[in-house]
Amino acid sequence: MSLTLYLHPLASFCHKVLIALYENDTPFRAEVVDLSDRSASVGFFDLWPVGKIPVLRDDRLNRTIPESTIIIEYLDRYYPGPCRLLPVDEYQLLDARLWDRFFDLYLQVPMQKIVTDRLRAEGERDPKGVAEARAALETAYDMLERRMTDRLWTIGEEFSIADCAAAPALFYAGIVAPFADTRPHAQAYFKRLLTRPSFKRVIVEARPYFQYFPFKDAMPARFMTA
Predict the structure, then answer these.
(1) Is the pLDDT reported for residue 21 higher than 90?
(2) pTM for this structure?
(3) At what angle do helices 161-176 and 109-119 cross, to 10 degrees?
(4) Is residue 40 scored above 80 in pLDDT?
(5) pLDDT, tens digit (0-9, with 9 covering 90-100), for 203-220
(6) For residue 104, what is the domain's CATH number?
(7) What are the distances in angstroms from CA 78 to CA 82, 181, 193, 194?
């Protein structure tokens, strides 16, 4: 098989790429990486010394592609399927790229700050940084709420790379900083994402690992069990 995706089933940026792969039934092999055990993942670190996942390896074209956005653009160009995740229209393409960045930088990043802080020892925690991350999420939620007042998907009627980014971002961010009761349009959008077969598959595959999520006690029961 030409494509290998190096990932961890709990990682939100890996979920983003998995959604793109599942949208088009793109054949690939999954290689789980344990970043906590460098010796067990030496092959991955040889491939991408930065040590960040996901990373896509394409043996057919002899390419190694890191970073979730770049991976999805690569797949859209070299392994296209019926669901084109990068719009042909130039204006929509810029919109899709903008909102892809929005979900990564303004939802995923502050969410990860909050989660990572939970893993620290008591004396090493950063309450000021966590408060700033929570404030950033509130701003992002407000922006998304305005965006989704009259849209099916982030850029309009078509599912795109932006929605691949939105699904895991909202999934995890909504656990650490709930928005369902205060942003009805954002919540309706998230519910539509949850019905997408590609995202449903990602959640099912991640379910055995949710027990290791630092905020698992706040995770809705419907995600923890079949």
Answers:
(1) yes
(2) 0.95
(3) 40
(4) no
(5) 999 999 999 999 999 999
(6) 1.20.1050.10
(7) 13, 41, 26, 28
Residue 140: which domain range?
90-196
In the block, residue with structure tokens 């959604």: 19
Over range 61-88, report the average pLDDT: 96
Query: Reduced to 3 states, what is the DSSP secondary structure of residue 51?
Result: coil
pLDDT over 90 percentage in the chain: 90
Alpha carbons 174 and 180: distance in angstroms, whole number: 8
Residue 65 vs residues 8, 36, 68, 222: alpha-carbon distances, Å: 16, 22, 9, 34
CA-wise closest residue to 58 among 34, 78, 44: 78
Number of residues written out for the chain: 226
d(CA 54, CA 91): 28
Residue 73 lies in a domain: no
The answer to whether residue 48 sits within a structural domain is: no
